[in-house]
Every structure is written in structure tokens, then in C-alpha cells.
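At this stage, I put together a protein sequence along with its fold in C-alpha cell form, as given directly below:
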Amino acid sequence: MRPVQFILIVLLGLGTYLYFSRLRSGLLDRLMVLLFAILGAVMTIAPDFTTRVANLVGVGRGVDLFFDLSILGLAFMCLLLYSRMRQLESSITELARALAVKKANDPDQAARGGGRPGSALHDRERPIEPKS
């Protein structure tokens, strides 16, 4: 085994470990990460296998196949992130509208400062005195 292969395997293992230990994800996401980790390890340990697969699909080298698939994967990830961002923006808009309607329907709340913490003192509330 060449030193670069050892380094790549260690980095791949470290990245996979960090993903599973730090990030919460669904079962499908975990299976995909595990599949890509195993595929990355096979491609690192047996680069000739990657070249043979590349030749079978009509690509000259295994590295070229890897880069082609990586570009497609990154484009797909960008599409997923954009979709998620649009979904979050829609959720925030719905929440803001619901809050605005709630404030508009409760005039007492608007007079007290909109219900924001610390915006106005109510008759029953007194400021907290610092302890000396």
C-alpha cells in the first residue's frame, strides 16, 4: 500500500466517523454515506478496479469517471440545498404571517409592546432589582 492510499483511507474513515458521531440524519442518509465511504475505500485501495469500470462505461481513466460522477453529485446536492432553502423560506413566511394576524387580532397585545419580552412592563410586573 502506498503512503497516499493510507492517508486517504484514514481521512475517509475520519470523515465517516465525524458524520455518524456529530450529525443527525435519517436512515437513508446514513446508508448513502456508508455506501460512499465503502466505495471510496475500494477506489483508494484498488485504483485498477476503478479504471476497469471506467473503461466499461466508455471513460478513459478511473479518475475521469470519479470527477464526472463528483460533478453530477455536487450538482444534485446544490439542487437539494436550494429546495430545502426554499422550503425554509416558505415556512418562515407562514410563521410571520400567522404572527402578524395574531397581533392584529389582539389590540391589547399591540398596546403592551407587541408581546415581545422586555418591550413593556405590565401593571402586575415589577423590574427585577439586582442583589447587592
Q: What stands out?
A: The helical segments are 3-22, 27-45, 47-57, 62-105, 107-111.
